[in-house]
Design a protein that fits this description.
3 domains, six-stranded antiparallel sheet, three-stranded parallel sheet, single chain, 13 helices, Arc Repressor Mutant, subunit A
Length: about 350
């Protein structure tokens, strides 16, 4: 066994231990020993090393937790602390990501600045609260304001019928209440860059990740004034801002593609034409639309026909791409496509 292999194997074991601790595995030693074919005494040696390095701490016998560093900031408009998103990033966020790889610094600079800018300019809040939480594996930022709730503001500005419709439109991207000064791309691309991304406001939640009831249950979505953004990214992610932009832009850099995770919009299987029309609203701003059916076990004939026949016929230049369809969803899709 070469020295290089030994180093790589040790690094893999240490990282695996940390992931199991993050997952709150009940028997870390056994899981690691079985996975890497090593004895449990060796596993304990690695655990002790992580403890000595200040990465983890022992909670009780056989249980450990990642050591977290947390810092909170109260920013006041009257003190000039909300005059510049760059200054807020430099003071609040940069100290916690400055030792990360360049691609991660670029992502945090973009996403954090965009969300702070939203709180500064759109919410009209006099106070903004920032919390940064970091452990060895992940960094999380929470940005909370006390202003106009984002979903309510979008609903009122565009005269949508419900907060759910406002959230649906926000997921598509290219949505802003201030088109003279904003492109409407900040939330869309920030949510794609992050590993997890949530917006809580007006008792509702936006997430552009796969809808996870368990994850949301651990976060607050009470009906309080203002908006709260929670976003998290692995400290070891290899994503870059450019590769995320490239996924949704054409060769000229235009924002031409969007993805709509339908489970995030509908709590039950969508059935009606009115639901389909909500999905199709403003899709004429894109050239390609990915409709993600993951988590939905069925769709109604009216819903499917309105999107894949009526809308598709009226907008032949727009490419509709359904993905992650379960058997019954695909069956209905094929049924309406046969009618074209």
């Amino acid at each position: 066994m070469t020295m290089r292999f030994k180093e790589d194997q040790k690094r893999a074991i240490l990282f695996y231990i940390l992931k199991k601790i993050e997952e709150k595995n009940d028997n870390i030693s056994r899981a690691v020993a079985e996975t890497f074919s090593i004895n449990q005494n060796t596993v304990h040696t690695y655990i002790n090393e992580l403890t000595d390095r200040g990465i983890i701490r022992r909670v009780k016998r056989g249980q450990y937790e990642l050591i977290k560093e947390e810092r909170s900031f109260d920013l006041r408009r009257e003190k000039g602390e909300l005059d510049s998103d760059i200054a807020v990033y430099d003071n609040c966020m940069f100290p916690y990501v400055k030792e990360l790889c360049g691609n991660l610094q670029e992502i945090w600079s973009y996403a954090f600045s965009e969300m702070i800018n939203n709180a500064m300019e759109h919410s009209l809040s006099e106070n903004v609260y920032v919390t940064v939480i970091r452990d060895y594996l992940n960094t999380t930022a929470e940005i909370t304001d006390e202003g106009v709730g984002i979903f309510e503001k979008i609903k009122e500005h565009f005269r949508f019928s419900s907060l759910e419709e406002a959230i649906c439109e926000l997921m598509k991207g290219k949505l802003t209440t201030d088109p003279d000064n904003h492109s409407g791309e900040g939330i869309f691309f920030s949510s794609k860059m992050m590993d997890s991304f949530y917006i809580f406001s007006d008792g509702k939640v936006f997430t552009n990740n796969k809808f996870d009831d368990g994850g949301i249950a651990n976060l607050s979505c009470e009906r309080k004034p203002g908006t709260k953004v929670v976003m998290s990214l692995s400290n070891f992610s290899e994503k870059t801002p450019q590769e995320i932009f490239d996924l949704y832009t054409n060769d000229d850099g235009g924002f031409t593609k969007t993805t709509i995770p339908l489970k995030n919009i509908f709590s039950a299987s969508p059935v009606s034409r009115s639901q389909a029309k909500r999905v199709c609203n403003r899709l004429d701003k894109f050239r390609e639309v990915v409709l993600d059916f993951e988590g939905l076990s069925w769709m109604g004939q009216g819903f499917a026909h309105q999107i894949f026949v009526v809308f598709a016929r009226e907008n032949p230049e727009i490419k509709l791409v359904p993905v992650h369809m379960e058997a019954d969803v695909e069956k209905m899709y094929r049924h309406v496509m046969a009618e074209r």
